Amino acid sequence: MNEELIISGRMNQGIDPYLHLWHWPIPLYLFLGGLAAGLLFFAGLYYILGKEKELPTAVKWASFLAAPALVIGLFFLFIDLKNKLFFWQLYTTIRITSPMSWGAWTLMLITPLAFIWSASYLRELVPNWDWRLKILYDFERLAIKFRKHIAWALVFLAVILGIYTGILLSAFNARPLWNTSLLGPLFLTSGLSTGAATIMWMSKDHAERMLFSKIDLILIGVELFFIIHLFMGFLASTEVQINAAYLFLGGEFTVSFWVFVILLGLIFPAILEILELRGFKVPVAIPAGLIIFGGLMFRLIMVEAGQVTRYLY
Amino acid sequence: MRYAMAIDTKKCVGCSDCVVACQVENNVPVGYCRDWVTETVDGTYPSLEIEIRSERCNHCDNAPCVRCCPTGASHIVEGGVVLVTPNKCIGCGACIQSCPYDARYSHPDGHVDKCTFCLHRVKKGQDPACVSVCPTKCMYFGDLDNPNSDVSKMIAKRKYKTLAPEAGTKPQIFYLI
Amino acid sequence: MESCTLLNIKYKHMKTRRDFIKISAVGTGGLAIGLSSVKIAQANEGGGLFKKLEKKPIVQNRYPTYCEICFWKCAAWTYTNQKGELVKIIGNDDDPHCNGRLCPRGTGGVGMYNDEDRLKTPLMRKEVNGKQVFEEVSWDEALDYIAEKLQGIAKEHGPECVALFSHGSGGKYFGHLLKAFGSENIAAPSYAQCRGPREVGFIATFGAAVGSPEPTDIRDTECLVLIGSHLGENMHNGQVQEMSAAIDKGATIITVDPRYSTAASKSKHWLPIKPATDMALLLAWINVIIENEWYNKEYIEKNTYGFKQLKQHVKQMTPEWAYGITTIEPDVIRKTAKEMAKASPAVIVHPGRHVTWYGDDTQRTRAIAILNALLGSWGSRGGFFLPESIHLPKYPSPKYPKPTKSWRDAFPGKFKLAELALASGICDATVPTTERDCSFKGWLVYGTNLIETLPNQEQTYKAIQSLDLLVAIDTMPMEITGYADVILPECTYLERYDDIRTSGTRTPSIALRMPAAEPKYDSKPGWWIAKELGKKLGLEAYFNYEDYTEVLDWQLKQVGSSLEEMKKIGVKKFKREYGGLYYYKGESIEFNTNTGKIELYSTSMQDEGYDPLPSYTPHPEPPGGYYRLNYGRAPMHSFSRTTNNPLLFDLMEENNIWVNPKIANEWGLKNGQEIWLKNQDGIVSNFPGKVRVTERIRWDSVFVVHGFGHSNKKLTRSYGRGLSDQKLITNVMIDPIMGGTGMRGNFVTFLTEEPTELEKAKGNPYLDGKQSIMNVGKEVKS
Ligand SMILES: Nc1nc2c(c(=O)[nH]1)N[C@H]1C(S)=C(S)[C@@H](COP(=O)(O)OP(=O)(O)OC[C@H]3O[C@@H](n4cnc5c(=O)[nH]c(N)nc54)[C@H](O)[C@@H]3O)O[C@H]1N2
Ligand SMILES: Nc1nc2c(c(=O)[nH]1)N[C@H]1C(S)=C(S)[C@@H](COP(=O)(O)OP(=O)(O)OC[C@H]3O[C@@H](n4cnc5c(=O)[nH]c(N)nc54)[C@H](O)[C@@H]3O)O[C@H]1N2
Ligand code: SF4
Ligand code: SF4
Ligand code: SF4
Ligand code: SF4
Ligand code: SF4
Ligand SMILES: [Mo]
What is the pLDDT of residue C41? Predict the structure, then answer.
């Protein structure tokens, strides 16, 4: 028998008996960040592709959710900080090696852009909206004028943001479950897919819905591909990573992961979307809701499980 | 200069004096610690082996905690010692997540805390508190760049290992085996 | 209906007048103290932003002390900050006991001072509305009451019917008080529950006791043999330090222990002996050494008595014979004997310390002494050095009255070689019997938690119920205080003066203990309590000083120092005056035995009718489904006294029940699972303990660390954490030679379901683990 124990009674709160420093706020922050990234990516992309008319939800309406999602996400990050009064220290420096740092800066840039983007469409959404101040009308005019530039910036920043939500975790080599370069693309894909699902859900236009249904299907396929590779990578790796994989293959996260993330969050909505594309009538809320729900669960589980995995003891 | 520790697992009895000494020296709040002691038992009765280790921050040469800190609160000072500046630390926890040794904890005051190699003592020419109390004298502290330091001599003389070298952090605490 | 029977049982005992009281003072004072402790607790908590910006307190002053957390008595410095708060305790570099390094318990000593559960004021047992409670009283009232009671006992039964149990520095003052009062019945658990047998065994052999600190020359040894001594878990500082130094020097360590102790893991040879069979191994080693003539003939001829008889005696006790008993392979026995012989005389067969194991302990330690004699280690470099100490003259005081009876009279014809009073013996002699004309009527209990210290708790409870007066002088609300009539709160060792420490070491030294802070709350130093009580008893002539510093200064001046000097240096070393550290080669030595020689064959034992040579007798083995209860130390705790210390509690909050994986498998026990233990007499543990499945323990035993499972709720941290081994030690094997209480012959089985209150109350009629009898009493009344 092999026994390994801490005999000095180490009991650092949040660390022992296993690390549980990050609770729900961080995964929610990552989820909302990913969602916003997805929404803004499609908004920017289709604007650049000149699809503003055909895809009004993607370009215009859904982006109204992005800015609040970012703000709420940041709020969740904030409430997770243990030394809140020193929050401003984040913006006294840029640390290239710290995802937390460039994530914070990305958010700093993309959030105002998201606001400007949706503000520029506000009067289309609410026709008798009054900006009251002349200067705001001037701003609106400017924003509309530079939409193309903003769109480019949005696409660029959204990709960074999406990847960041994964890299934030994968940068932590210390947690074997997170220690994989697949996490960045995987979280980006998942973020895009929740964004696409949201657009699909909001859209009243059949063609737009169908497009995003297809996009979602592709993204789900990509995600499944990544996840399979993720596990294959783990199983072919060091003992700690094999152990990490086993958390999902018989360990304590098996049911929640396979049922909520894979079955309900990916496969089931994929089937529904295939059925819909084949002409069956499926209420759009179901696949869309499931994808969003799956994306959220994915982050909750990854954050939680990642903290259970470790190198020692 | 490169501060490091060598700890002789053949002599450590796991008494945890190093842990209490650190707590009283460094005002570590009750219920927390900067160092701790582990025991691994291998084999089947009666062919058994125990390894006892006093563990703490490894003051890694390649410190992920410093890399991932968004504010620069975690930083490296002279001798490669990894420190946290409380008033720069936002308590985001990134460094805690990044440390393969779980050597950091969130201090009740909000900032992150960890072993400092007792720089305040070392600067006065004293050994770190844990080293100075150890009844078995199984801990050696000093400058790796100085071949005559206790650490350098022990490392030259004995077989040693580091913890979780596969994590790539280049830890600077050497366990004599 | 079960609760009803339970109540009936309890009701029966309601007549007895000494209920266990959880100390909860009545009266307004209690509230005030409650509040102040809350304040202290808050002050210790993080003060948010401001606290962080506050600079760390700068250490300001240091005061000499010596540690009181175990009896190694390491000298140290207590450091205070500018606010006068105790910050840390660091070993005194000049001290030969600790060489500047304390053990974890000593380092954590500040926790004892800061423990907010401490006893705060004198308390007296009173009856309020038919319910026994402790009431806060003034020192005056408490001492008046005690004096009156003591005088009453003296009048009715004679002063000899008062006994003192003492373990710790301050016990001296109460011993002095008691002797002045007219009684010599002063007992420490460190004798009949600890090292008594080995002292008797070594006196019978070398004419000298081993003593404390042990004069084992581990630093320079080439071969250290540990028989059960679990150095490293047993943190007796100097020995642990020297063992480590010996490892560095490449000394061979041989450990005989059924459990894979920490020391075993550092040893070249671990002999996983079957429990209770060490005697056979020792005899076989003696056999091998004699048969192979691995001893020093000249030395043996010149210095020992009875070699021939010994040789004859062990003739049949071959390694093959011992193998059948001990399960240690014959070639291992030979190989290890050879190692010892090779190192001889720089070899130590360690005499052990807590040696009250199986009732034949004097004989077992005799065998150890004989083995050392054969190896020539006594008085040799790397064996046992010859300690020397400074004699401090006694402060002048009148002669003590001559008592007419002593503790020996309580058991005529028994334990004839005991040189010190037996704590267990006095406890026994407190329970009235028809044979004895007088039993003990009054107990002063200083610094010993008798409930958790003496085996067979039922007997302790019975004795307590027979008393007219029980005074507990303690620092903490321990189990024993719950049974006291009067509780006197002593301040901790960090807040008081005590006697100068003088002890036998390589270099003679003395050490001072002085307060580093004022006594907290309304606690007082022991010397003050004894003096004030002495005054009330009309014995002021014996306490001819206002302050104890007068005594200390006087004594110190007799040996060429002074209080002033000692305050500055803490430890003073002296030159040796009586010869070298070892005997020199060919020295003709006069041993303090009947024959003047090392008695391999003990004439004193023979004279008293005991076996002059040790023999192996088998001891009972656990029946099916039962496991031998093994217990020992954890390095970060001392008995039951440190388990509530906030710093040390943090290191180890509870004891676990070590179970071999095979047995765990058989019983389906999981790591961390809470189980209860039940012993051969149907006694169940007061609390559950968590299972630790580990290969470090044999399949025929379980192991727990002694000192846990506190049943006094006032110990807010340690109450109910882990379980008490003491409750399960009901089979006590008394050593016929000196009365030691063999405690290792108890067998336990596992209970996976919580036993009923009735089951838990068994063998413990006055107190069951969780519920004090007071609550039951109230229920019966209503
Ligand atoms: N089951 C079992 N029983 C044992 C042992 C065992 O291993 N297992 N070991 C035996 C041995 S070897 C020994 S030496 C004895 C030890 O027996 P004890 O010395 O009685 O052991 P403790 O349980 O530490 O009790 C010490 C008491 O002293 C109090 N105290 C501490 N400091 C002070 C002080 O400064 N002043 C005063 N007035 N009181 C103080 C504590 O609060 C506590 O109540 O136990 C023996 N009994
Ligand atoms: N940390 C700490 N250190 C202490 C103390 C403390 O409370 N805490 N107390 C001090 C005191 S007063 C004393 S007396 C000493 C006691 O310390 P020791 O004298 O070392 O105690 P023992 O009870 O002799 O040893 C316990 C060991 O004996 C083993 N053992 C059990 N049964 C047998 C057997 O049949 N044969 C053999 N060979 N071994 C057996 C156990 O497995 C365990 O490892 O410790 C002292 N040091
Ligand atoms: S103080 Fe020394 S012997 Fe004790 S646990 Fe720490 S390193 Fe080991
Ligand atoms: S041990 Fe952990 S905290 Fe210390 S330097 Fe290495 S990664 Fe950072
Ligand atoms: S918790 Fe503090 S030290 Fe750690 S990464 Fe965040 S800001 Fe840096
Ligand atoms: S070096 Fe100092 S801070 Fe680090 S563990 Fe040792 S005592 Fe604590
Ligand atoms: S060995 Fe430890 S507990 Fe005992 S006196 Fe020394 S420092 Fe105190
Ligand atoms: Mo003892």
Answer: 35
Residue from the list B14, B134, B137 with its beta carbon closest to the beta carbon of C262:
B14
Residues of A at the C interface (Cβ-Cβ below 8 Å)?
A: 1, 3, 7-9, 11, 85
- Which residues are CB-neighbours of C368 under 8 A, at least 6 positions away? C198, C201, C227, C282, C349, C350, C351, C352
Q: Nearest-5° angle of CA A292, CA A296, CA A298?
A: 115
User: What is the atom index within ligand 3 of the atom nearest the CA of B137?
Assistant: 2
Residues in chain A with CB shorter than 8 Å from the CB of C693 are 1, 3
Q: Which ligand is nearest to the CA of B172?
A: 4
> Is C718 part of any domain?
yes
How much is the average pLDDT of A155-163? 95
Residue C650 contacts A, CB cutoff 8 Å: yes
Checking DSSP bridges between strand C223-227 and strand C252-256, what pairing results, if any? parallel
Nearest CB among A3, A9, A11 relative to C694 is that of A3
| Cβ neighbours of residue A178 closer than 8 Å, sequence gap 6 or more | A169, A170, A171, A172, A302, A306, A309
- Work out how many domains chain C is built from and give that number: 3
Q: Are residues C179 and C200 in the same domain?
A: no
B chain contacts of residue C41, beta-carbon cutoff 8 Å: none
B 60-79 residues with CB < 8 A to A: 64, 67-73
Residue C56: its pLDDT value, please? 58
Torsion of CA B89, B92, B98, B103, to 10 degrees: 60
Beta bridge mates, C186: C164
Which range marks the domain in which residue C728 is found?
627-751
Surrounding residues of ion ligand 8, Cβ less than 5 A: C 194, 354
Residue B12's Cβ-count burial label (10 Å; 0-12, 13-18, 19+) is buried
Look up residue A87 and give its amino acid. F
Give the residue from C67, C107, C237 with the most B CB atoms within 10 Å of its CB, the best one to mutate.
Answer: C107
Secondary structure of C348-385 in HEC code, one letter for each residue: EECCCCCCCCCCCHHHHHHHHHHHHHHHCCECCCCCEC
List, for residues C490-543, the tens digit of each pLDDT value. 999 999 999 999 989 999 999 999 999 999 999 999 999 999 999 999 999 999
The set of long-range contacts for C81-85, using a CB threshold of 8 Å and a minimum separation of 24, is C81/C57, C82/C57, C82/C58, C83/C57, C84/C517, C85/C57, C85/C517
Ligand whose nearest atom lies closest to the CA of C355 = 2
Domain that holds residue B134: 3-176
Q: In this structure, are C375 and C263 located in the same domain?
A: yes
DSSP per residue over C93-139, as a string? TT-TTTTT---HHHHTTHHHHH-TTS--S-EEEEEETTEEEEEE--H
Report pLDDT for B126.
Answer: 95
Judge whether B168 is closer than 8 Å to chain A, CB to CB: yes
Check A12 against B102: CB less than 8 A apart. Answer: yes
- Report, as an integer, the average pLDDT of C344-370: 97
Q: Domain total for chain B?
A: 1
- Domain co-membership, C262 together with C346: yes
Instruction: Tell me what ipTM this predicted complex has.
Output: 0.92
Mutation test of the interface with chain A: which of B12, B47, B87, B92, choosing the one with the most A Cβ atoms within 10 A? Answer: B92
Q: Tell me, what's the pLDDT at C1?
A: 32
Is the CB of B86 inside a 6 Å radius of any atom of ligand 3? no
Classified as helix, coil or strand, A73 is: helix
Cross-chain CB nearest to C650 (options A1, A9, A85): A9
Which ligand is closest to the CA of B3, given by its number?
6
pLDDT in the model for residue C25? 43
**Interval C686-710: pLDDT, tens:** 999 999 999 999 999 999 999 999 9
